[in-house]
Amino acid sequence: MLLANLIFELRPLLDDPDANLRQIVARLRAHDDFAEYEVARHYVASKVEGVVRSWLASPDPRVRTEAIVAVRQIFSRPAAAKLLRHLVKDATLSVRRAARRAVGELGLDDVALRDTSLALPRYPRARGGWNPTGWQFGTGASRGRPRLEPAGTRAGLPTLPDLAALTGWLGLDAAGLRRLMRPGTHEGAPYVNFEIPKARGGRRTISAPRAPLRAVQRQILAQILSKVPTHDAAHGFVPGRSTVTNAAPHVGALLLLKTDIREFFPTIHYWRVRGLFFTLGYGEAVSGALAGLCTQRAVINPDATAPQRRVVWPGLMPQGAPTSPAISNLVCRRLDARLLGLATKLGARYTRYADDLSFSFHDSARVEALDVGRAYWWIDQILQQEGFAEHPGKRQILRPHRRQQVTGLVVNDHLTVPRDARRRFRAILHNCRQRGVAAEANGRDDFPDYLRGFAAYVDMVQPDLGARWVAEVDALLADQAL
Hints:
metal-binding, single chain, 20 helices, globular, 4 domains, four-stranded antiparallel sheet, alpha+beta, RNA-directed DNA polymerase, Alpha-Beta Plaits
């Protein structure tokens, strides 16, 4: 077949790539021995990349598997490597297998952090070398299914030898436990979904547990999770730590490197949570039940009937559950230890606030010797091995001549709230004095709480300025109450 004929067949399909992706892949597969196939593939790749990425992010594992087939058929090896590397550790076994099969068929030879659970091979491309086998680190046969029962629970944690003990501790019966682990967000399900806007555009889905499950999760948080220490580098969701303690180590940095973890909470799935509870000393059955109570299973086509209506397995950690922040910090203990070790080797300071990673350099000689690209490569590879994905678009390289911010605070010379935020609040206080709080509130019922909250926030960061603003807000609100 001539290249022109193949393009002629593909062109109408590319008018709606989302609906026609399967046919596009089938046409390319039928002609992959064609001499000018690479030209056709390049032509298609530029038009379907967005669709393929959206399919790879689908909650339906079947859709993700189909997207992997499309990646294998459409994209060049370098582009395919970027898309497949995180899927080799997908929560669903069928997706993992499809991704690993595609990596093997494409013959990817990317340089990757080696899998230290395998012996260093004699030949560079063999398993265990500095090659894509390192992407699979931590996914051995026993992952998620421990072969040995733990010796015993840690001191200070409730002893729960079996499911009967767990249900008694939670004040439930077996049927009540099963009800709290039902999938979906429909009426009667343990979760309800709603959306909130993201700070930089887009929408974020929050899965909030309903009252019965929320009470159980708070018990698990208070009596198990909160009693396990987090890594010292973790500052988000930790009592006694805050955005201030997270930013303080980076004050006066000669170089600040920042990046984010992509889809932080949803990356933590049932098997990882189950493994966490197992490391705390609970058996397989109890660890599985606790993980089921702390994760959520989605339902595909919830309004349809079987076989269209399907439950996704395994469940993912929801944004909105009271247990999720603590679990994320505990799951990240080894990640934090490895990134701190990297930072120490590079001569940097490291902190993490949820999905926000910060590395600061304070020694001029270490800054001059630093290869920034190589430092980011190590960060990215460690994240990959620990089951997370870096968000390359969030990378920031900040030097003293620019405003250096860590978790919303300026750290160039000393900790301060950004100048534009201070000016805006100062103007609001001025208007409150001139026009009154009620007029400035413009109908907002939470406006007094906003005034108190921002003044208290500034007081935490800049005590001298904050104390004046706290006193001024108190006076303004007292006058309004008269």
